[in-house]
Write a structure and sequence with these properties.
about 250 residues; alpha/beta; Nucleotidyltransferase, domain 5; 2 domains; 5-stranded mixed sheet; 6 helices; about 25% strand; globular
Length: about 250
């Protein structure tokens, strides 16, 4: 299968194009690299992965479609050759999640292709599975709070949560070794000063978009496509919704 994955959960926007995943017979019609000369790159059939990550703040709306077109071109694929669209469903940036979800569902509808939504935290956990007994993806939720969940390997053990840093530490305190991952883990600097088992991932500023491709395919195979009314998982109401509720 040829799989397009989109992640706009944080200020790091990322797109991945997985080529020939789960099916050795399906690959690009043209050479892998579109900028080849006649004696340059040869056709490269079979499985491949193209990723593009843009760490330039919340400018997803103006960059996303261009990034998708770039990845398609680099993979030597046309939109009509896509088999599955995958999107990070959150938690994360409310605006970013809406942009990614709308884009993914629009492409899926326009191409008559299935669509799968995957938890952002699940994707981060899968990206770091095996690096520590317990992995805790953590994202800045603003208001001195964090979105996070607790995983052993890539299996979810608790969460997802929207809570304070004190609550994060309280929930993981019983584990002898914990690895915190995600682009906002620098906000936890110093918390492990008195706990040798607490570690912060070194390569923090990156999206788990490659894992989205794998998880999206796995979930599609075992559970089928997400429903057409799938929505971002915000974990809490937006400021506007909270204000309206207060009347």
């Amino acid at each position: 299968m040829n799989i397009l994955a989109i992640d706009c959960s944080t200020d790091i926007m990322a797109v991945a194009l997985g080529r020939g995943y789960g099916d050795a017979e399906r690959g690009p019609r043209v050479a892998k690299h579109p900028y080849r000369e006649e004696r340059g790159h040869a056709t490269a059939p079979g499985r491949g992965l193209v990723t593009l990550s843009v760490d330039a703040g919340f400018r997803h709306a103006e960059r996303l479609m261009g990034s998708i077109e770039y990845c398609l071109a680099e993979a030597g694929l046309g939109k009509d050759e896509l088999d599955l669209i995958v999107c990070a469903e959150g938690p994360g940036s409310f605006t970013g999640l809406r942009i990614a979800m709308a884009t993914a569902k629009g492409l899926a509808l326009g191409l008559s292709r299935p669509f799968v939504a995957v938890s952002t935290l699940d994707a981060y956990a899968a990206e770091w599975a095996g690096c520590a007994p317990v992995v805790v993806p953590i994202l800045d939720a603003k208001r001195s709070r964090f979105f996070y969940a607790i995983y052993e390997g890539s299996a979810l053990r608790a969460g997802p949560f929207d809570d304070t840093l004190d609550s994060v530490i309280s929930r993981v305190n019983g584990y002898p070794e914990v690895l915190f991952v995600g682009p906002d883990t620098d906000m936890l600097e110093g918390i492990g000063a008195d706990r040798s088992g607490f570690r912060l991932a070194s390569a923090r500023r990156r999206s788990p978009v490659a894992s989205l491709v794998e998880l999206g395919l796995e979930r599609f195979i075992h559970k089928g496509p997400s429903p057409s009314d799938a929505a971002p998982n915000y974990l809490r109401a937006s400021d506007a919704e909270e204000s309206a509720a207060k009347g």
